[in-house]
Amino acid sequence: MRHSHAERGNDQACLDRQWKSARGIGILPRMTFDSPLSAWQYAVEHKGFIQDEAQEHAVWALQKCHEALHAGVRSVNGVYLWGPVGRGKTWLMDQFYQSLRVPARRQHFHHFMGWVHQRSFQLSGIADPLRALARELAADVRVLCFDELFVNDIGDAIILGRLFQVMFDEGVVVVCTSNLPPDELYADGFNRDRFTPAIAAIKAHMQVVAVNGAEDHRLHPGTIEQRYFVRTADSPSALRAVFEGLIAGERSSEDPVAVGHRMLNVVKASESILWCRYHDLCEQPFAAMDFIALCDRYRAILLSEVPNLSAQKREGRIARGTEDGAERVVAGDRELPQLSVHDDGVRRFIALVDECYDRKVPLYVEASVPMHALYTEGYLQFPFRRTLSRLQEMQLQRFAEV
Fold it and tell me: What is the sign, positive or negative, of the torsion defined by CA atoms of 335, 345, 261, 14?
């Protein structure tokens, strides 16, 4: 779908705000710890963190990178942390980022790719836009920290095949988290050979560390604050009382609110609290940039009328040929993903949960089924594991603590 110049401008403004936030303004408050090792040791000794051998191995890899950066070493290897959900990968990377005293950015990976696509479009008139983009990054930052590196889009795969190489060439140090080891990224993707140079670059310039201990740290006991509700037929919505309690006297309205270049129908909204229906937010053509804008604007989001999202996969469809923005690809026939009837909405729901989790914006959900039954069948079962884990963590009071 093509966007008008005005729409591109709205998306770019959103991305610019996200880059600003990624520098530590409004998302990740700076801590007093001077290294990831000292932050982890304090958490184990004083905050009840479980001693975890896999985490300790990751901490020392991050510590080594941290020390090299601050010693002024010219060529520094980054760190690639991978493992199942809930193993503390994001927390460890955040401690590394927050203790850095060199120019750095920290972002969710899909935000970064949104910026890359925008900037590549703007630089499309020059001979080597990706090289120019990498030089811009290197002039601005020494370190890029990515959360949730996951590739399932041919456009991203083609760009990343070269982008990682030129970023490393320009001296950018990358630290990231992922649920998959590098060799399994984009494993069944179309034209995967276009992505394999990125895998080679990651393995050459980053220390790959498995954070795969037995503990799911998100499930450790804590003070419960219920943010997921099951609503039976004909029963009143539990979110009404939640909304009234959260707005704390603010004026509210049922008028639609502007999100980018679209209007979002709401149940109610105040200046700082949004309450809307799943259909109106996740089954309409909103994008990741719109969820960024919502988390910029609201300190809590309520989502009601969430259905059972499970459904059988559709039969695979055949696509004949493809073309990317850089060069024509002789593709032949290929099978498109077997998305179920709900999966377009589920993709948006996953992106919404990721954004709320990353920004510490509590998401209150009212659904027709319990959380564990929300999505048990469909094409997106693997990425939904992370979503389920994050929804579970959101039920703890500590989730929204800064």
Answer: negative
